[in-house]
Design goal:
single chain, mainly beta, 7-stranded mixed β-sheet, 4-stranded antiparallel β-sheet, about 0% helix, globular
Length: about 130
């Protein structure tokens, strides 16, 4: 299995930027996809971004398209979420989630597709 640890959250103002990091360890020799999932009070879980093991296949929620960018380092052990033009509506706990895939360029489309989860990092965007 894969162990995941998130970092980089904090308190920012609307329009500012943050970069979240997800460090992976354990069985990283097999193909695995990573997603960023956020949970806000009173709202359903939302998969905001996903990336394949290869790093060249990505997917974004409509709410963050054009503002957030997901990427992966060459060693496949760290995944980043660059968040620009942050809005108060982005306030949530952000979780890094992962699971193994059949293909190197496959990403996972739903929060329920991921078996392994980090503990989350809080992002608060104020006016």
């Amino acid at each position: 299995q894969v162990q995941l640890v998130e970092s980089g959250g904090g308190l920012v103002q609307a329009g500012d930027s943050l970069r979240l990091s997800c460090a992976a360890s354990g069985r990283t020799s097999s193909y695995y996809a990573i997603g960023w999932v956020r949970q806000a009070p009173g709202k359903e879980r939302e998969l905001v971004a996903a990336i394949s093991w290869s790093g060249d296949a990505t997917d974004y929620a409509d709410s963050v398209e054009g503002r957030f960018t997901i990427s992966r380092d060459n060693a496949k052990t760290t995944v980043y979420l660059q968040m620009n033009s942050l809005k108060p509506e982005d306030t949530a706990v952000y979780y890094c989630a992962g699971d193994y895939t059949r293909h190197a360029a496959e990403f996972l489309r739903r929060p329920d597709d991921y078996r392994y989860w980090g503990q989350g990092t809080q992002v608060i965007v104020s006016l």
